[in-house]
Amino acid sequence: DASQRASAKQNRLLHETLSAYFDETDKNRKKQLLAEAAVLGAYIKRKGNLIFAGDDGSVSACELRLCFHESLSNVELLNADCYLDDALPDEMVLPAQAAMSLYDSYEAAIEAALPDIRFAFVRIKEEGEYIHAIYSIVSSHDLFSAVFPAEASISKEDDTWIISMSMAKEGKEI
Question: What is the dihedral angle through the alpha carbons of 125, 127, 129, 131, rounded to the nearest 10 degrees?
């Protein structure tokens, strides 16, 4: 189905992570692997919800907020400090593709940073006819290797990665 196709990579990573968990003997490493599995599982679940909710071509800002909130809650299992600053109005409706692009770009950054995420900050706001998203992630891992939409901008200062995207409310990235 569409949900399985959309999260095939994350399903594979989840399977690999759980296999490593069952093979691991170190208690602390097992705990870390289980937290990574929770992060991947939350994305898989929420991506499926976005696909289902967006079946009519649109997704509410509330649904997108729930996706980020649950995902960040699971990143906290890695002992990361996480914050969500979602300033989209509750009544706002986004094109499904725009919501998925925002969530997928966040997930690409988180996956590339795993398991070394010390801080994650997500800001999503509306400005005029545009939606702006900024993800700030502190990690020693290389996020330049992650696959982001062409319109995403990525920069690094010390161990802080900044990923930003803007798109028209109609869903077209700018």
Answer: -20
Beta-bridge mates of residue 124: 86, 133
How much is the pLDDT for 13?
92
Q: How many CA atoms lie less than 13 Å away from 103 in the CB half-sphere? A: 32
CA distances from residue 126 to 50, 63, 87, 102, 158 in whole angstroms, order as listed:
20, 16, 7, 13, 29
Q: What are the pLDDT digits (tens) for 98-145?
A: 999 999 999 999 999 999 999 999 999 999 989 999 999 999 999 998
In 3D space, the residue among 32, 61, 63 whose CA is nearest the CA of residue 125 turns out to be 61
Give the pairing of strands 81-86 and 93-95. Answer: unpaired
Q: The tokens 């969500």 sit on which residue?
A: 84
The pLDDT confidence band at residue 149, using thresholds 50, 70 and 90, is: confident
pTM: 0.90
**CB-CB neighbours of 96 under 10 Å:** 19
CA distances from 165 to 40, 105, 106, 122, 130 (A): 22, 9, 10, 12, 10
Rounded to whole angstroms, the Cα distance separating 44 from 101 reads 15
State both tokens at 92: 């706002």
Q: Using the 8-state DSSP alphabet, how is residue 142 labeled?
A: -
User: For residue 119, what are its two tokens?
Assistant: 């801080």
